[in-house]
Amino acid sequence: MIMRPDDASVARNMIEEVGAIISTWPCNSQNRDHCVATLARVQHTDFLWPMCIREVAHISTLITYTSKHSVEVQVNVMSENILTATLWCVPLLLKNMDKVLEVPPVVYSWQEQEEEGQKQYKTQKLERMETKWRNQDVVQPVLNPEPNTVSYSQSSLIHLVGPSDCILHSFVHEGVTMKLTDEVAGIMAARHCKTNLVIASVNAINFHDKIRKGCIKTISGHMAFTSNKSVEIEVLVDANSVADSSQKRYRAARAKLSQKKKKREREKRFEEGKGRYLQMKAKWQGHMEPQP
């Protein structure tokens, strides 16, 4: 596709769409109830170069591993090799979108590919379970915070989910949620650094629950780590129904650590962020080195 002025942050929507398509196809290839795959996790995303208006984007996908109830998909967006991403999708029954179907096994090109995929599956499953256990806290606004503190840069957006935000069966398109998390992260980074920034890498996004049409989404975030040239931000997505007062607010994506251990957990989060930063820096240096 050719990039247009209204395609800002379109890469997130593109990788989610192609990931859902390639994940749905093998699940419907057998004689069984029809399903549709939905995005459950973005494993990692590296933005190698900016994508500009009028450039041509080419998206390619490959299924790299299947478990009983999920599919790992590798997505590459080519425009001077700007982006690579790894997604995890799960197939949902069309007649009952709350039921997860089993995934048919895939034939791997080599044994190491299956072993590596199984290792990645176990790792991401443990991390998703861990973030789901930490889903009860809410980012509370702080009055008159001191400059350059975590409270000073934290930001929130409130969004009413409309029909244009949804796919079939009135559930929110995950790409819409990712775009809003980008906006919150951008606001926070600009507020902290007093300048414009671009997203260089997405460590992981966990989707814990579906968001339905008519819900109010609250997207909030706070700083996790800063280096001399980059910042790491944690973003939380909560949802609650406008029409149904009996439905309580729930965590739809990501997580927040306990406020009771705020100081200690912030220090822990900083050290974890520092480790991820050093890994990402080494990876980027490998991308930028001239190839023989």
Automatic annotation (TrEMBL):
Keywords: Hydrolase, Serine esterase. This is HotDog ACOT-type domain-containing protein. It comes from the Eukaryota. Residues 151-265 form the HotDog ACOT-type domain. The keyword Hydrolase applies. GO terms for molecular function: carboxylic ester hydrolase activity; long-chain fatty acyl-CoA hydrolase activity. Residues 253-292 are annotated as: Disordered.
